[in-house]
Specification:
This protein is mostly helical and 642 residues long. The chain is built from 23 helices and two strands. InterPro entries: MATE_euk, MATE_fam. One of its GO terms (cellular component) is membrane.
């Protein structure tokens, strides 16, 4: 097993270091790999078909040599030795260390000689030492990186050897067989576009149904009165700010879980899920306290005391459902990493209608209706029902193959997780908070403007789910291929995702323009509010194109593990450009809502273009190296926990 691990690393050797069977290629000379005295009786060496001797761990499976070729491959040895098993049994770390050390020593001596001969130049030998290998996976493999790959593969083999079975201890991260073979999957433009569509459709349905909870609350409560509509808008704004923090943390799983699954580390997917969930629930404690005392905080921002009081009541009743929602978001990503996108759809096909029914009964029913407070009660009950049903789906239908039981490893490496979680949180929070600041600005224009902004924001959030679903699908495919070290396929998935985002944005734009009057009537019976919504819809339609680009590009960055780039872009554009412009257009030039949306639209344009460029022009070599580094750290964590 160790020899096979060494074989895989040797196969990825940089072309300047590769051997054709005679030695390692070097610009000045060739250093023989077979520096051990050759022998046909040694299980480490056989004769190749060219007559040259080569190290067997370069990939020859001795058991598979045809019988008619046995003499050519070493004669009697092939009839008496099962080489892979012999090497697995006999080769331990100390016995291979001398090979790696000698390899390093001889390479270093060659490099030192090269440095001394540099004065003669390359032209003296007619060799270009600066030639670059044009490939996705090997272009970064200098000798040091090659040796680190050998040691990483040895570590993987040692972890595997020390554990007889994952199921027996429930916490081991080893490479296992997956239903999808990302390493050998044939990927074309058509197949990848088809896969993206296949993944996106259930996600679109899932996110649409998930948004029903917020929409139902707005619709049901909004028809009670303007104050109630403004209060539910304010409460939704506050809860969205807090939920965005934990949704941002869960986006770390968009990188970690699919990459682990693509690499065949099934139980690593479950451990990442456990670690992220435990960390999120721990961090929620102080936010939950602030949520409970939200009335004092909101009074500092909103002048209408009645609206603030109603919003505070809504939030307090909704608070018990927050942990269930946080776990549900992490759970979805755990399943999505395995290509299980329909689970959330099935769950929400049950819960969304129940939420409508519960909201109606608890708000409007003359026997059990509770009025305004019935809406948050319905939301809380359905959050817990969603979690229970998704758990049952995983246990009894599909998704448990990546669950190896609770592991103490989930209590470690929270700091490493935060390196991905914090930028992801900043990305989502920067965007979400900017929308809520717009809602806050609108509250100063009057209740009618606030109600209009509430309706527009709700519709924009609903339409956002379409490109966001495409982005999640693209992110999953990108991370799967990065985990499988197929960077060219990951790049293709990223490009298809970006172009699809533009198409979806245009589709959303047309839907708003065509159906602007019916959509406006869905949100209010107040003629003044409806007319204001219809008037601003053409501007919102254009903004949706840029919003779609932003949604897909941001997700692709998470699939690449480049959340930090997205966080920088979002922070600068929203809060250095977008929010100041919103004040300038909305207040100083008195454009009110139109000014707010012109500002946010310009910001979304800058973000969408910038992030799309970063995705397409990404340094894929660095993406792969960072993914491999995370894999090595996880293996080290497994060894320390064992």
């Amino acid at each position: 097993m160790v020899a096979n691990a060494l074989s895989k690393a040797l196969q990825q050797l940089h072309p300047n270091l590769r051997t054709n069977g005679f030695g390692i290629g070097n610009s000045h000379r060739k250093l023989s790999l077979t520096f051990i005295p050759p022998s046909t009786k040694s299980p480490l060496f056989v004769y190749s078909k060219t007559g040259a001797r080569s190290f067997l761990s370069l990939g020859t499976d001795y058991d598979e040599i045809p019988e008619e070729d046995e003499d050519e491959y070493g004669g009697d040895l092939s009839r008496t030795v099962s080489l892979p098993s012999q090497i697995t049994e006999r080769s331990q770390e100390p016995e291979l260390d001398w090979l790696l050390e000698e390899h390093t020593r001889r390479y270093s001596s060659v490099q030192n000689s090269d440095d001394e001969d540099d004065e003669d130049g390359d032209d003296a030998l007619g060799v270009d030492t600066d030639q670059t290998y044009h490939g996705y996976q090997d272009e970064s493999d200098d000798f040091a990186h090659f040796m680190s790959r050998i040691r990483h593969n040895r570590a993987t083999a040692n972890v595997t050897q020390r554990r007889n079975s994952f199921q027996s201890i429930g916490s081991v991260s080893v490479v296992q067989q997956t239903d999808e073979d990302f390493v050998h999957e044939k990927v074309t433009l058509r197949s990848e576009a088809s896969m993206l569509l296949q993944y996106s459709i259930p996600l679109i349905t899932t996110f649409f149904l998930e948004q029903v909870f917020a929409i139902v609350s707005v619709l049901v409560v909004g028809h009670i009165g303007k104050n109630e509509l403004a209060a539910v808008s304010l409460a939704t704004m506050t809860s969205n700010i807090i939920f965005a923090i934990f949704e941002g943390i869960s986006t770390a799983l968009d990188t970690l879980c699919p990459q682990a699954f693509g690499a065949g580390d099934l139980y690593g997917v479950g451990i990442h899920f456990q670690r992220c969930t435990l960390m999120s629930l721990t961090l929620f404690i102080p936010f939950g306290i602030a949520w409970w005392y939200s009335e004092a905080l909101l009074n500092l921002l909103v002048p209408d005391e009645q609206v603030v009081h109603l919003a505070s009541v809504f939030l307090r009743i909704m608070l018990p459902g927050a942990p269930a929602y946080i776990i549900f978001e992490n759970f979805k990503r755990y399943l999505q990493a395995q290509g299980i996108f329909e689970a959330g759809t099935y769950v929400l096909l049950i819960c969304a209608p129940l939420n409508v029914l519960c909201s109606y009964l608890l708000v409007w029913n003359k026997y059990i209706g509770l009025g305004f407070i019935g809406a948050p009660i319905a939301v809380t009950l359905n959050f817990w029902l969603m979690l229970v049903l998704l758990t049952l789906y995983c246990v009894f239908i599909d998704g448990d193959k990546c669950w190896g039981g609770w592991s103490k490893r989930s209590l470690d490496h929270w700091k490493d997780l935060m390196h991905l979680a914090v930028p992801g949180m900043i990305m989502l929070e920067a965007e979400g908070l900017s929308y809520e600041i717009m809602t806050l600005f609108a509250s100063y224009f009057g209740t009618t403007y606030l109600a209009t902004q509430s309706a527009i924001s709700t519709l924009a959030s609903l339409l956002y789910m379409v490109p966001f679903s495409v982005g999640i699908a693209s992110s999953t495919r990108i991370a799967n291929f990065v985990g499988a070290e197929r960077i060219n396929c990951a790049k293709l998935s990223a490009e298809i995702g970006i172009y699809s985002g533009v198409v979806v944005g245009v589709f959303n734009c047309l839907m708003i323009i065509i159906f602007r009057r019916p959509l406006a009537n869905m949100f209010s019976k107040d003629d003044q509010v409806v007319d204001m919504i219809v008037d601003i819809f053409p501007l919102i339609a254009v903004v949706e194109i840029f919003d779609a680009m932003n949604a897909v590009a941001g997700s692709c960055l998470r699939g690449q593990g480049m959340q930090r780039i997205g966080s920088y872009i979002n922070l600068v554009v929203y809060y250095v450009i977008g929010v100041p412009l919103a004040w300038l257009f909305g207040y100083y030039w008195d454009f009110k809502l139109e000014g707010l949306w012109i500002s946010i639209g310009f910001g979304l344009f800058l973000i969408g273009v910038s992030e799309s460029w970063c995705v397409i022009k990404a340094d894929w070599k660095k993406v792969l190296e960072e993914a491999q580094l995370r894999k090595i750290n996880e293996l080290e964590n497994a060894e320390m926990s064992d």
